[in-house]
Design goal:
3 helices, single chain, mainly alpha
Length: 154
């Protein structure tokens, strides 16, 4: 873990670099995905397709954020419990004041949150690696013949 750029004492550089890489990745992925989604849509259905595409994208993003937040909160509590189980009132380095105990708890919580964030990013990495083979399911779109409208006169 010594080479891990994400640590409690880090400066803003790793966050900025990962944000730039993420922004480039989203930009490079979103355009082809949108192109693939709308290639076979007839022009008269583009408005509805756009609305449906954005609805599904927003719902998927909301579900993803909710799942990652739930994992983060759960892992933070589990790791906090794991880190604090070794602290007893009989330990030599435990502060005896309320302020000292509160500072110790805050330190353990920060460390647990950092480990939980790293676990969240590892989870997202695994999801990405697992989803890469889905690219093989993409096939070349077939050309859709324009449908002729038949007018029925009563």
């Amino acid at each position: 873990m010594a080479n891990d750029p994400f640590q409690l004492q880090m400066d803003a550089r790793p966050v900025i670099v990962s944000g730039i890489i993420q922004g480039l990745g989203i930009g490079l992925i979103f355009v082809p995905v949108t192109l693939i989604a709308f290639t076979t849509i007839l022009p008269e259905f583009l408005n509805e397709a756009t609305a449906l595409f954005n609805l599904i994208r927003n719902i998927g993003s909301s579900i993803g954020i909710s799942v990652l937040t739930a994992i983060l909160v759960s892992k933070t509590q589990i790791i906090h419990s794991s880190l604090s189980e070794h602290i007893t009132p009989y330990s030599d380095n435990i502060p005896a004041t309320e302020v000292g105990i509160a500072f110790l708890n805050a330190t353990i919580t920060r460390q647990a949150a950092m480990v939980a964030y790293i676990n969240d990013y590892k989870f997202m990495m695994v999801l990405l690696i697992v989803s890469i083979p889905l690219v093989l399911l993409i096939r070349e779109p077939t050309t859709v013949a324009s449908t002729e409208r038949i007018m029925v006169i009563d």
